[in-house]
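A further point concerns the way the authors explain their paired sequence and structure data. Nothing conveys this as quickly as seeing an actual entry. An entry of this sort, consisting of the sequence and the corresponding backbone structure tokens, reads as follows:
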Amino acid sequence: LVGPDASPEEIDRTRAAIREDPSRWIVQDVVDLSTQPVVVDGDLGPRHVDLRPFAFHDGTRVIVPAGGLTRVAFEEGERVVNSSNDGGAKATWVI
């Protein structure tokens, strides 16, 4: 549930589910995602994305590779970018 995008009915259903079993829920602030142009059906269109950078520790130093994982919403205006909820992902390289 993304609060600002939820209907009153969705909020009521979720509120009831939280009251029934609060231990199954986690709340976090809504973070506005940036948009990037993506190719959709041969045309460019904006989609919300987030970038997941990685860092590795070899026991001595932290290594941050030039790139990461970009997660993208498939529908315009959609904020959900995780693949388990209809988002997608691509490797991102910085050259």
